[in-house]
Amino acid sequence: MREPISSYPRVRVQADGRQVVSQAGAVLLMETVRKTGLDQAISAALAPWRKPRAVHDPGKILLDVAMAVALGGDCLADVAMLRCEPAVFGPVASDPTISRLIDTLAASGEKALEAVRSARSKSAIAPGRWQARPPRTPTAGSPSISTASS
């Protein structure tokens, strides 16, 4: 069986104005999740909570909830905004499925929290993995921006 490379479908951004997606800013967030490996790490960490015949991956469900919050949602039902854009967000679990997963994770307490922390530490977003860069300085001869009006 082939391992999935990401929880979200590949999205190509074009500025031609033909196909407009209301949550286009989420593409950057999804790419960050993909590039850091957080999607695969959280899916692996939450695998013990996946039911044998489950259709939806618990890791993807939790990432969808986080994505909805990042896009301005304030409750589990706000994941519906992702469900409206399947070409961007892929298959999104139903509200009852999301609620059951949250209940199951809450009942697991510290064990579930530790699994999420473990996923975070295994992805590229772990503290210490991003090196601070020295500030960029303008190079000699490059055009400068003037604030004075002419």
From TrEMBL:
Polar residues bias (residue ranges): 139-150
Name the record gives this protein: Transposase DDE domain-containing protein
InterPro entries linked: Tnp_DDE_dom (IPR025668)
Occurrences of domain Transposase DDE (ranges): 5-119
Region (Disordered): 119-150
UniProt superkingdom: Bacteria
